[in-house]
Amino acid sequence: MNTLAPTAPPPPWRAPPFLRASAALHLGAAAAAVAVPGAWPWALGAVVLNHAAITAIGLTPRSRWLGQNMTRLPAAAAARGEVALTIDDGPEPGVTPAVLDLLDAAAGQRATFFCIAERVQAHPALAREILARGHSIQNHTARHRHNFSVLGPRGYAAEISRAQDMIAAVAGERPTCFRAPAGFRNPFLAPVLHRLGLLLVSWTRRGFDTRERDAAKVLARLADNLVAGDILLLHDGHAARTAAGRPVVLEVLPPLLAQLQRQGLRSVTLPQALREPIDE
């Protein structure tokens, strides 16, 4: 459990270069519109283009232009031959227990479950079973709101803090990692995560298994050219079904876990991957 309180508050959040440049552009455009006759259409156009760029970047889950975003494990974890299997949108009683059984059968492979906090609250025994089997539960918002990417600072703080509290009440510890729904966000998210001590985590490769019913295609997206340090994304909640009605994740996991074993890779939880390097 995370029982140690931080010894000091985190340093102030510092906006990334793109956001600092955007702020400077807004100030310059406002000054030009006031000081230069006839400049306001150009100034307005520059601001509109900048907002379009910010929106496009927010809809790019792996982008770092809006703030810190982990898309691969640290070099130390890759050097240890680690990958991170992450499973989103649960816990789901009809799927998650079978996922846990498949991971158990793979002897030592661990996963990180980015859980929707309201589902953790609805299925507390299942959430605790995830932890009891050696896996990790992290924050995937309280409700998985479809409008998450357009919330403001107060909306983000309320949604994410509520999820932290709900998960901690069941799991006994507060998450340290966060994943946005579909990876979409806006510039207000990074300072909120910084204040809450959460690391934004996206992925290296994803299977699109919420809409792809062909397990072979999902597996290929995850397994082709798989290397140490990769963060893989699958779903136990909102999982697509194969033609036979079976959740795609349950068809993909056995061959994926077998490939990890063949390549000498080990799936670890994100807290494990983020630990300090250990001298061997």
Proportion of helical residues = 40-55%
N-to-C span: 25 Å
Order of helices and strands: HHHEHEHHEHEHEEHEHEH
Overall strand count: 8
Radius of gyration: 21 Å
* CATH homologous superfamily placement of the largest domain: Glycoside hydrolase/deacetylase
The number of helical runs is 11
Task: Note the main sheet.
Answer: 6 strands, parallel
Query: What is the name of the CATH architecture of the largest domain?
Result: Alpha-Beta Barrel
What name is given to the CATH topology of the largest domain? TIM Barrel
Low-pLDDT runs of 5+ residues are 1-5
Shape: elongated
Provide the residue-averaged pLDDT: 93
* The CATH class of the largest domain: Alpha Beta
**Class from helix and strand fractions:** alpha/beta
Beta-strand percent range: 5-15%
The tally of domains stands at 2
